[in-house]
Amino acid sequence: MATDELSSKLSRRLQIEEGAEEPAAVEVHEHQNGSEDKPSTANADSELGAKLMRRGELNEGHGEHCQPSSKVFNPYTEFKEFSRKQIKDMEKMFKTYDAGKDNYIDLMELKLMMEKLEAPQTHLALKNMIKEVDEDLDNKLSFREFLLIFRKSAAGELAEDSGLSVLARLSEIDVSTEGVKGAKTFFEAKVQAINESNRFEAEIRQEQEEKKKQAEDQKQRRAAFKELQSAFK
User: How much is the pTM?
Assistant: First the structure.
């Protein structure tokens, strides 16, 4: 049966090549009763089922949401109410207590921080501290969220007896605001914005001068050391 069918197909192909017969466009049915469609249909059903199951897990709180990639964070442009020195002091403090060096302060690291500041907190209080500024709901503090503590403190948005208020108060970082938030009129805001821009540039120049001075001091110390070495030769 298979041999007869193959012979028939070869004969038909020869007739078409010799021009004896025009090829006809036919709809090929290579499967019956949808037997060949089953794998693709099954795959689609499986994928849909997996998505529905995933959504159900998220709704029930069992799964984790994938956070979208965020833009690059620049503390100096986003937190303009603080000077460069203030932000650097906050960054230094943040890195001091980021024991895991993963750019986050988790519950245990926050616990250690508060103990070092001689203001230990209960487990529940520590969780509430993180929750108050935890914008991405990952149960830990990024550097941006850490800066939010000082922004809220400077704006008077923290309860006086709250853990975050205690942290900001005991951190020895002066968080007095200098930005344009307090401007009462448009022109006052403009003037303060210009002043802030000038202050920002002045701080950068001061940092550059300090680095230049440090480099010069190191150069002089090296020269003095070499001179001392040559005296003993």
Answer: 0.49
In sequence order, what DSSP letters do the residues of 107-155 get, joined into one string? Answer: HHHHHHHHHHTT----HHHHHHHHHHH-TT-SSSB-HHHHHHHHHHHHT
* Distance in angstroms (rounded) separating the CA atoms of residues 110 and 125: 11
In percent, the amount of the chain with pLDDT more than 90 equals: 37
Buried b / exposed e over 136-170, threshold 16 CB at 10 Å, is: eeeebbbbbbbbbbbbbbbeeebeeebbbbbbbee
Tokens of 86: 């203030």
The encoded tokens of residue 118 equal 């001689």
* Cα distances (angstroms) measured from residue 26 to each of 11, 23, 29, 116: 18, 9, 9, 82
The structure tokens listed for 214 are 């440090």
Residue 83: CB partners within 8 Å, gap ≥ 6?
178, 199, 203
Q: In which region does residue 188 sit, left (phi positive, over 0), alpha (psi from -120 to 50) or beta (all else)?
A: alpha
Please list the ranges in the chain whose pLDDT falls under 50.
26-32, 34-38, 66, 68-69, 177-187, 189-190
Tokens of 192: 């303060």
Note the pLDDT tens digit of each residue in 39-92. Answer: 555 555 666 666 667 666 666 665 555 454 456 889 999 999 999 999 999 999
- Residue type for position 5: E
Q: What does the alpha-carbon distance between residue 189 and residue 212 come to, in Å, rounded to a whole number?
A: 34
